[in-house]
Amino acid sequence: AGSGKFFVGGNWKCNGTKDSITKLVSDLNSAKLESDVDVVVAPPFVYLDLVKASLTDRIEVSAQNSWVGKGGAFTGEISVEQIKDLGCKWVILGHSERRHIIGEDDQFIGKKAAYALSEGLGVIACIGELLEEREAGKTFDVCFQQLKAFADAVPSWDNIVIAYEPVWAIGTGKVATPEQAQEVHVALRDWLKKNVSEEVASKTRIIYGGSVNGGNCVELAKKEDIDGFLVGGASLKGPEFATIVNSVT
Length: 249
Ligand code: PEP
Fold this sequence. Notes:
By secondary structure, the chain is of the alpha/beta class. The protein is built from eleven helices and eight strands.
């Protein structure tokens, strides 16, 4: 971890029921979390209100997606205004499952980020290469292109956390080695330095996601440019998520 405040997000994806989420919230409420870490959880939309109302204020709440502009006649979508109305502070955008399963493209994701930021939400901006892209030596190209789409769209980086999530590591149990993650994080920081500014490069937190768990988080957190984690599967277990939150100390 570098000098910025460590950031750990839990992405619950499309998991849970009222019962299991109530249990998870109760586990999180009683967990001991290091004070010097930003902690955020992203429940499914339908449980945002329940979680926001029952979760300790120590943990902020994020949506997993948002509509690209102001709400209105967009059946099935959820607006940034509604997310804010529930007291949520963040939204995850560009998650690989939305890019590769739902088919969202760079430009659409960039627009979503710009709109969410303009309304005061923080953005967890996800990028990452597919296995075949890594094997073809295109990891940096793909990540830079996805990062550029955010950079081209957003007016400021004050409220953005970048999540580097190699797609081959997401939900596969195949975590990137600390060296593999660090290599990409440094390259991303360098890209920001050259293409945005030195200040943004040094201040923006770059977190890693992809099969992070209670057993591998400490080694990853030691790396200079890994400023936190975005956690999927392991964030559904309160005690394990707390272990990951506390991995930096
Ligand atoms: C994610 O979905 O952002 C993620 C990293 O998932 P997992 O931790 O399950 O690989």
